[in-house]
Amino acid sequence: MTKYTYCCLLLLLGTFCAAQETFNYKAAEAKIKKYIFSRPDSTKIIIRDILSRKNLHDTILGNAYNSYGIYFNHMAMGDSALYYYNKAIAALKDYPKKKTSPMANASVIYRNRGEYDKSFQILEDALVIIKKHGFRKNEAIVYSNMSSNYQFMLEYDKAVDYLLKGIAIIEKENELILLGPLKQKLANTYMKMENFHFAKELNLESLKLFKTYHDDANYAITLINLAECEIHLSQLNEAKKHLKQAIKEQLIINNPHHKAIAYSKLGNIARMETDLDSAEKNYTAAIKILHDLNSISQVLIAAEYIELLNKSGQYSKALPVIERVKGAPIFGSANAEEKARFNLAAAKAYSETDNSHKALAGLEKAIALKQDLKKTANSTETQKLQAQFETKIRQQKNKALQSANISLKKTGESQRLKTISLVIVCLGAIAVSGLALRSHRLKSRLREEALRAAETERAAWKQQHDHEKEITGTQQQLIVEKQRELASSALKMAGYQDSLRQIIEKCDSGPIGHMTDLKAELRTLLRQNEYWKQFEARFNSLHPDFAESLGARFPALTKNDIEFCSLLKLNLSNKEIASLLQISHETTITKKYRIKKKLSLSDDTEFGNLLEGI
Questions:
Q1: Which three-class secondary structure state does DSSP give residue 172?
Q2: Using one digit for the tens of pLDDT, what is the confidence trace for 312-348?
Q3: At what angle do helices 585-598 and 574-581 cross, to 10 degrees?
Q4: What is the pTM assigned to this prediction?
Q5: Which domain does 602 fall in, by range?
Q6: How far is it, in rounded angstroms, from Cα 84 to Cα 106?
Q7: Which of 106, 107, 281, 489 could form a disulfide with 119 if both were Cys (CB 3.0 to 4.6 A apart)?
């Protein structure tokens, strides 16, 4: 080795060691923060580089773990994300301000799993730390996460309340970089409350904020939310444009979950435009991605897809979709509204493919879910919060004008009196104009609120009417299914009685007629009436008030008469009733005639209608 070569090696080694010692962690963390959503694979390399270094300070280690958790969450790998969030919490145990960030992030994973108690608990723990140390910005983030929990739980009034708390803190602290995500969540809540005009306005404001601060991930998500508003406002061309733009953005930042959501929205538009092929293509793409990710979003989107298949008569095609989604681990964590819609669509597909057992089960689940579902979207408190915040937004837009008026007071000392007079005149004119403008805006606002309230009331009434109609229809279908099952059971019992009678007749006429003991035992079995008790119990479970109501209206009827009427209510024929009661066909007709006479009826149709109505 020459002296020159030796010197070069020493120089390279020194440079390498200096580079190792002067590694700029702040610059690396800044790059992670800037590119973690837009260039996730690149930031992953930086995070691994940091974690590969020895003797890291706890704050650097904790921040790296937290960033790794954000990366995995962005890639829809919830278990890995939660693992690194917990490592970050442990590493930052002595740094309360930094510790609350991974705690808030971990709450998101629990929420996505439907584990709301765990999500709220970790947020409450974070809030205790935050309030103790006065970390106002972090307090707003916790309120934002609590709002998201309430939105998932369909408690929209609480969701709005917590978001407004968070927004007030952010504005006071002037942390405008956090204002976009909170407004985005507020827009989502108003979408759930079906105030799509105001939700669209908030989404447009969020887009501007995300563009300003280069938040590519939230920008792409907001495009999807904006399109959802436009779909409900029948602005389909604008919605399609924004969804296609969102899909391009998601391909760049590589977020499969939100790409699937965009596909599902395109499916909704295609269904509205009766383009069934395009709708089916987009729904299929969305469900495949969401199922692979075990995302809770697949339940609602599958319900929409099954409804489309039912409408086009492709019931058999719906069955594998139903079974696949029902078998997903996340299915049980979906909210009641989405599961009820899914079960109703599935029941329809099952009933049209001769699978009555599963159809009946689906109907029962749907009825139970819909009866327990709390509708809070139109509560008075929510509408009040909504009006307050809309007014607040518009007041903020006039702050610039008010600031300009104040500047008029600053004039030169040499023309003090003249300027003051001019300012007074100007302020008076501005005040008059402002009052007139404010009065006009207030009147317009009141008219808008009155119209919105009327429309909300009409929509709520229609929704309630449709809901009650749907429940009535499904309950009626359930009764028909069970009544058919009960009639079938009754006929089987009648067949059992006929078989016993035939055995006795053979004993009387055949070569074994001398077997007295056998005949006596069979006659004893024939006289047993346990079958009637079973039938009576099942009938009363289906029509619990029938016997009592009929007896109260017509006291002349005996217990046997009421039992006979219960068989007529099942639409059994005279022959079937005779076989079931082990009486002759003529006796059945006579008994029916006598009962009609007690009821002062002569027409069979009138008799049938009376029994049907009880």
A1: helix
A2: 899 999 999 999 998 888 888 787 788 888 888 888 8
A3: 110
A4: 0.46
A5: 501-613
A6: 9
A7: 107
